[in-house]
Amino acid sequence: MTPLEMLGVFAAGVGAGAMNAVVGSGTLVTFPVLLATGLSPVTATVSNALGLIPGSISGAIGYRRELAGQGRRVRKFAVGAVLGGFCGAVLLLALPAAAFEAIVPTLVGLALLLVALQPLIAKKVRDRRAEGHSARPDGGRPLSAGLALASVYGGYFSAAQGIIYISLMGLFLDEPLQRLNAVKNVLAAIVNTVAAAFFLFVADFDWTAVALIAAGSALGGQLGARTGRKFSPAVLRGLIVVIGTLALVQLIG
């Protein structure tokens, strides 16, 4: 990498760490930047997964107050996160590179759609609660299964993984968004760690990219956790959509 590219990757790591701590979809920042440096899609994905671990952990620590009283819930969901993250990582390497290049634009497009529809999803959740539909303390089997499938997606390609987690938990759990966000950060950290641990033995990394994203995302995770409550959701959502659209155009082109 050139010095300018290294600076760009580090800055992307900071942005991704902050976004993941607040709302998710940080991969939509780092992934196109890594592609722009000349990395292949698979190498960019595995390097990104490993590099974002410090940011995920940093974000989870930053939201530790919101995790109070949710230990049992987190442990239950963590089982699906471990299994799902591993399955997703296996799929990434088991499928041919051509399949990945065809699938990724679809995943990015779906991720952007989820981000754009988040206000509508939240409204439907509020309407459902207003109609008297109470949420189970742990969400029951449907939520556990949904989170496990989301973890498979996260192990394969983590863009908008956090949005999927929050959307699912919001449908089944009667909790404030910030508490759901805290659980999301823990699950994302688990999936990234499991996938990266698997990739260490079977995939090729760009260690410069890993180090730069790791340093940047650790810093960004703390920044995001401290300032996330002050940001307008509309502004964050708009930023994600713009960056993700640029990524989608680059992937398709």
UniProtKB/TrEMBL annotation:
Membrane protein topology class: Multi-pass membrane protein
NADP found in the keyword field: no
Keyword annotations: Cell membrane, Membrane, Transmembrane, Transmembrane helix, Transport
InterPro entries: TM_pro_TauE-like, TSUP
Subcellular location(s) per record: Cell membrane
UniProt key word tRNA processing: no
Family under the similarity heading: Belongs to the 4-toluene sulfonate uptake permease (TSUP) (TC 2.A.102) family.
Name of protein: Probable membrane transporter protein
Transmembrane portions of the chain: 34-57, 77-96, 102-122, 143-166, 186-213, 234-252
Pfam families in UniProt: TauE
